Amino acid sequence: MADTMEGVLIQKDDNDNLKDLIIIGRSGNGLTSVEQSIHEDNEYRVIDCKGIGDAGQDITLLERRQHYFNLRDQLRQIHAILFIMKYGIRFTQQEKDAVSVVKSTFGENVFKAKVVIVFSYGDLFRQDMTEATDLDECFMTWCRDQFGDIKTVFEEADYRCVLFDNKTRDIDRKTKQWLQLKSSIQKVEHVNFTIDERLSQNQAPTNVVAVMGERTSLSKLIDNIKELVHIIIVVTNFFVHLL
Fold first, then answer.
1. What SUPFAM superfamilies does this protein map onto (predicted)?
2. Would you say 5 and 70 are in contact if contact means Cβ atoms under 8 Å apart?
3. pLDDT at position 241
């Protein structure tokens, strides 16, 4: 049975032995495929928080955070939080907002203690790295080569990053990537983690209040320019390889 709560879907089960996994990410980031893999393993219960950080959701983040507090109070224990990102897409303001909401709800140390970062659309990474002899090693090297805000998030999560091909039909590949994800989950599921009870629905930290504010037109323009520059670089590199 499932209860829906403003974008938060709680999959309830009579088996109290199931371990709670929270899944957070933007719509279209491949969350459904990750969920399906988890459902095939009878060890976990999925708590779906998809939609956070979606375009147009900026002014409702504070409201969504309040729903997360309601969710938080229902959980017996947080075994792991899966933060889903899409390979090939920049680490945008929406992802930064999502990180802030997670921290403000569960505590500043939650990424270090409980978060596993899952990159969906692993097929695109495979296409970009056709010459790689070891795709797993290549992916971890790519993660460690990142910089800026996303590097900070990776470091906080101790580089618990998993590449997930959500389009593959290859049974062996699907099994392997689920085992890799499960291994990362197992690294954090027994970590003692106490939610900061000082965080309340009515007392948002200063940095979160700033995040919840309506983004200005200038900020959006800057994001668009950065995206355009990123596209130009990708296209330029493509033609350079053709020469």
1. P-loop containing nucleoside triphosphate hydrolases
2. yes
3. 67
Residue 116, beta-bridge partner list:
82
- 103 has pLDDT over 50: yes
The more confident residue out of 2 and 148 is 148
Reduced to 3 states (helix: H, G, I; strand: E, B; else coil), residue 202 is: coil
Position 134: which residue type? D
C-alpha 41/C-alpha 27 separation (Å) is 23
Residues contacting 61, CB < 8 A, separation 6+: 52, 97, 101, 211, 212
Which stretches of the chain are assigned E, i.e. beta strand?
2-5, 8-11, 19-25, 44-50, 80-86, 115-120, 161-163
Find the helix packing angle between 61-74 and 93-106, rounded to 10°. Answer: 40
> 117 and 162 in contact (C-beta within 8 Å)?
yes
Q: What is the dihedral of CA 49, 53, 56, 61, to 10 degrees?
A: 70
Q: Nearest CA to 33 among 132, 173, 223, 154?
A: 173
Whole-number pLDDT of residue 206: 41
- Summarize the confidence of residues 151-172 as an average pLDDT: 92
Q: Is the pLDDT of residue 152 over 80?
A: yes
Provide the whole-model pTM. 0.73
